[in-house]
Amino acid sequence: MNIIEAKQAIMGTLKKKVLAALGKVDDPDLKKDLVSLGMVDALEIDGTTISFTIILTTPACPLQEVIKQACIQAIRDQVKDDFEIVIKFTSKVTSGRSASSILPGVKNIIAIASGKGGVGKSTIATHLALALSNHGAAVGLLDADIFGPSIPTMWGCQTMKPTVVKEGGKHLIMPISRHNVKLLSIGFLSNREEAIVWRGPMASAAFKQLLQDTNWGTLDYLLIDLPPGTSDIHLTLVQTLSITGAVIVTTPHNIALIDAIKAMAMFQKEQIKVPILGLIENMSYFLVDKEKTNNRHYIFGKDGGKLLAEKAAIPFLGQVPLLTMICQQGDLGTIPDATIMPFNKIAERLAQQVAVQNATCQQDNASGHNMH
Ligand SMILES: Nc1ncnc2c1ncn2[C@@H]1O[C@H](COP(=O)(O)OP(=O)(O)OP(=O)(O)O)[C@@H](O)[C@H]1O
Ligand SMILES: [Mg+2]
């Protein structure tokens, strides 16, 4: 064996050791090791450096630092020599959806729902879309509120009209792009007075068309802002698309919680079986002085949504305060460039739950269970 071959053999052994070490590091959410999950890529070792890339399941992963430290520790335990460890991160959003379904380019479809009206679905859908997009994900937002679409106003694009393209002999609507998010609303296509007099079946047909005939391209997350309650639109959605899961929005009041329970029950029905990705509590408290966090006024009661999530054993994604700025931005359609405080964390937790859901879905498929 010459010197080069000997060096290669040492490096080969070292690579095996590093991979064995990383094989002991579990993804904290997916509870499986990084190597089996295919999350380790481009492992290179030279005389002084061990470098590799971790492929996360979402660019909005809140556990990046935790994973990094666990990898460094595991390698240090296995490899005694003093190598510099360089870890890069990239992401590939997972999907539990079948590629043969409608919208095969859309990896995850997330419905934003509530039992009660006016609790902040559209506001939250808007800010989550922005937060996910700011993390680097490809995001779309579909306003499914046929009778009271608010997305065009909230995004300041009421007067815009989507174009239609012909692809493969089919006419497809092109969503409107704002702040790097692809938007579509029935509000862009019909005038409000017209839509208000539509009867249930007409509204469902219009919604179905929006779902099927839109050119979303490739998206990591498509958020669907639903109307309140449990209407025909909800049924059309779950019958037309296989959706990743639903997020329930509620305010802390009892009255809203009762309706949130109804909405959860609808998604959990045997014929529907849409996983609940989590619950968000909106208007949790009013902050009189932004600087003083102890200056919180729980005008609608304290922790109602949080306690409901605990009781129903569903993930709690976070609390959003009642802020004048949020309301003003919604009214004026002045979307902020940066993510407003708590939405970033909530978006990260949502992305985490999507990854967990997709992993569960893959496991169930592998073991022969028939998921939605
Ligand atoms: N956290 C908040 N702070 C201040 N204002 C808020 C907050 N959340 C929502 N709002 C305001 O409350 C109103 C209702 O919110 P929104 O339209 O998002 O609710 P919704 O659940 O989508 O309503 P609908 O059931 O009619 O679709 C809007 O004017 C919005 O700007
Ligand atoms: Mg709404």
Query: Considering the protein shown, what is the CATH homologous superfamily of the largest domain?
Result: P-loop containing nucleotide triphosphate hydrolases
What is the second-level CATH architecture of the largest domain? 3-Layer(aba) Sandwich
Q: What percent of residues are in strands?
A: 15-25%
The tally of domains stands at 2
Briefly note the CATH topology name of the largest domain. Answer: Rossmann fold
What is the terminal separation in angstroms?
57 Å
Counting DSSP E segments of at least 2 residues, the number of strands comes to 16
Ligand inventory: adenosine-5'-triphosphate, magnesium ion
Largest sheet: 9 strands, mixed
Task: Walk me through this protein's architecture.
Strand 3 and strand 4 form a beta hairpin. The protein is globular. The chain has twelve helices and 16 strands. It is an alpha/beta fold. It has two domains: 89 residues, GMP Synthetase, Chain A, domain 3, CATH 3.30.300.130; 258 residues, P-loop containing nucleotide triphosphate hydrolases (Rossmann fold). Helix content is 38%, strand content 23%. The site of adenosine-5'-triphosphate (ATP) has 21 residues, from helix 3, strand 14, strand 16 and helix 11.
Keywords:
three-stranded mixed beta sheet, alpha/beta, 372 residues, 2 domains, binds magnesium ion, globular, GMP Synthetase, Chain A, domain 3
